[in-house]
C-alpha cells in the first residue's frame, strides 16, 4: 500500500518537509514533492541499510533488547494504517518501546509526540504512535547500536521472520536514507525519497541518519502486542474520520475493520484564509502545551496571535465555548470544532446566534438570546415565534459576554422579548434574519409550560387632536 499524505504528497516525505533544520528542502521544489519512482534496492530484502554502507567493526554495541518468552502464536506483519487523528497523547506501547530503547542503549534518547501540523500533513507522532530513537550513522558506536537493534528487530526467530517487529507491532522504519515497511516486506529497505542524492550532513535529520524513526500499528501503540502481553493481539485500525472534520476523534478503543474513505471537508466558496486554516485543523485536540499552525489559527479566531497556547487562549476559548452552549473545557475538542467549522457554521456570510433561554410565569413568556450577521457588526433582526405566531425584535441589547467570546464584535447583540401567553404548553422558536449574502439561521426551539390565566393586554386610548375635534 503506498504511503500518501493529505493532498497526495508521498508520506515518506513528511519528515523532509517538516524538519526545520533542513532549509535546503525547499530548493528541490516540485521534484521533492513528486519524486521519480525509486529504483529497486540492490540489497537482499531482509538486509538493513548498514549492509548497503560500510561494515561496522565487530564487537561494538552488540547488545540487543531482551527477547520475549517463546510463544506458539505471533502477530501478522502490520498493515499500513495512516495517522488520521491528532490528540497529542503518548500511547502506552509507544512509551514502553521508547523506554526499552533508552534503557538498553545507555546514553541515548527518544522523542515521541509532536504538535499537530509540525511534522507535515500526516505523522504518527501526532497520534502518539511513533518513536524517534536518537543514534547517528556518522559515529561507529551509533551505527553499531542501530545494527544491533535492527538485526534483533527483523531477525527470524523460531522460524518466524521479522519476529520482534511483529511482536511489537512495527509498521515501518526509516533509517540512513532508507525505509522498511511491514506492509511491503518483499521490497526490503527501499531508498527514502531523494536522500541518496544528499549525503551532506545538513540532511542528516531529514534523511534519518541521526535517528531511527519507528511507527507502530494501533495494537502496538496501545501495548497490546505479544512482546508485552505474551498473547497475540488482534488487528486494530484505530479511530476513523467523519466527513465534517479533517482529523479523526481521539482513540476510544479497538476497531477491527478498516475506516471507510472520507473526502476532504468542503470549504464554502469565498471563505477567508482563517476559515480555511481552521477547517484544515478541525478535529485536532488542542490544549495547554499545544503549538504550531493549528494553534495559530485558533488564536487568531479568538483575537490573539502566536503559535503557542497561552493562558489567554484558554480563557478566551472558555468564553467562546460558554457563549455557544458548550462545556467550557478550555480545550479545542470535537464539540468545539463542530461548533466552529461544522457545515452550518461554514456558511461564512450567514448569521450566528443562540436562543439562550425561555422562561414563563403566570402572565407571559420571556425569550433571551444573542445574534449577529457574518458580514457586518450592525444590528440584526430576530424572528421569535410563539406556537407559530411571529414577533420580530432587534438584537441590540447589551451582551458583553458575546463581545468577549467573539473578538471584534460589539457588546450589543442581545435580544430579549416578552410574549403574552395562555396557560398550558407552548413552543418558542427563534430565527436570526440574514443580511446580504448567506441565509437565515434557525436558532432552535424551546418547550415551556405556563400556569395561570392568560395575559390580558390593555391598550390605552390614543388622544386625537386636530381641527373639528374638541380638545
TrEMBL record:
Span of the signal peptide: 1-40
Domain (ARB-07466-like C-terminal) ranges: 87-199
Keywords: Signal
Designated name of the protein: ARB-07466-like C-terminal domain-containing protein
InterPro entries, alphabetized: ARB_07466-like_C, PGBD-like_sf
Organism encoding this protein: Lapillicoccus jejuensis
Amino acid at each position: 500500500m503506498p504511503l500518501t499524505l493529505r493532498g497526495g504528497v508521498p508520506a515518506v516525505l513528511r519528515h523532509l518537509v517538516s524538519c526545520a533544520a533542513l532549509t535546503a528542502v525547499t530548493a528541490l521544489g516540485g521534484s521533492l514533492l513528486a519524486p521519480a519512482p525509486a529504483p529497486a534496492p540492490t540489497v537482499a530484502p531482509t538486509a538493513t541499510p548498514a549492509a548497503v554502507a560500510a561494515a561496522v567493526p565487530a564487537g561494538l554495541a552488540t547488545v540487543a533488547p531482551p527477547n520475549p518468552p517463546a510463544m506458539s502464536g505471533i502477530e501478522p506483519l502490520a498493515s499500513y494504517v495512516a495517522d488520521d487523528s491528532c490528540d497529542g497523547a503518548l500511547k502506552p506501547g509507544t512509551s514502553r518501546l521508547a523506554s526499552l530503547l533508552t534503557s538498553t542503549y545507555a546514553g541515548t534518547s527518544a522523542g515521541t509526540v509532536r504538535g499537530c501540523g509540525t511534522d507535515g500533513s500526516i505523522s504518527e507522532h501526532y497520534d502518539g504512535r511513533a518513536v524517534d530513537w536518537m543514534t547517528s550513522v556518522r559515529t561507529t558506536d551509533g551505527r553499531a547500536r542501530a545494527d544491533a537493534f535492527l538485526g534483533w528487530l527483523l531477525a527470524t526467530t523460531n522460524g518466524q521472520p521479522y519476529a520482534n517487529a511483529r511482536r511489537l507491532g512495527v509498521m515501518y522504519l526509516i533509517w540512513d536514507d532508507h525505509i522498511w515497511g511491514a506492509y511491503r516486506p518483499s521490497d526490503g529497505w527501499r531508498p527514502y525519497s531523494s536522500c541518496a542524492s544528499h549525503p551532506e550532513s545538513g540532511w542528516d535529520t531529514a534523511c534519518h541518519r541521526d535517528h531511527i524513526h519507528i511507527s507502530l500499528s494501533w495494537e502496538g501503540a496501545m501495548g497490546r502486542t505479544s512482546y508485552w502481553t505474551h498473547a497475540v493481539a488482534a488487528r486494530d485500525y484505530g479511530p476513523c474520520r467523519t466527513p465534517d472534520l479533517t482529523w479523526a476523534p481521539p482513540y476510544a478503543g479497538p476497531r477491527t475493520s478498516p475506516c471507510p474513505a472520507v473526502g476532504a471537508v468542503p470549504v464554502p466558496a469565498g471563505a477567508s484564509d482563517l476559515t480555511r486554516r481552521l477547517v484544515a485543523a478541525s478535529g485536532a485536540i488542542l490544549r495547554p502545551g499545544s503549538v504550531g499552525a493549528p494553534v495559530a489559527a485558533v488564536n487568531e479566531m479568538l483575537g490573539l496571535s502566536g503559535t503557542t497556547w497561552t493562558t489567554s487562549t484558554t480563557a478566551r476559548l472558555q468564553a467562546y465555548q460558554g457563549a455557544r452552549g458548550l462545556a467550557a473545557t478550555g480545550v479545542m475538542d470535537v464539540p468545539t470544532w463542530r461548533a466552529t467549522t461544522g457545515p452550518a457554521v461554514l456558511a461564512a456570510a450567514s448569521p450566528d446566534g443562540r436562543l439562550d433561554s425561555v422562561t414563563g410565569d403566570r402572565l407571559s413568556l420571556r425569550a433571551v438570546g444573542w445574534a449577529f450577521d457574518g458580514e457586518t457588526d450592525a444590528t440584526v433582526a430576530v424572528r421569535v415565534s410563539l406556537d407559530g405566531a411571529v414577533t420580530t425584535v432587534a438584537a441590540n441589547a447589551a451582551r458583553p459576554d458575546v463581545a468577549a467570546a467573539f473578538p471584534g464584535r460589539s457588546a450589543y447583540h442581545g435580544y430579549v422579548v416578552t410574549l403574552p401567553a395562555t396557560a398550558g404548553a407552548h413552543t418558542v422558536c427563534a430565527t436570526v434574519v440574514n443580511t446580504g449574502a448567506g441565509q437565515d439561521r434557525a436558532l432552535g426551539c424551546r418547550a415551556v409550560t405556563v400556569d395561570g390565566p392568560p395575559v390580558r393586554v390593555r391598550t390605552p386610548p390614543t388622544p386625537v387632536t386636530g381641527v373639528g375635534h374638541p380638545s
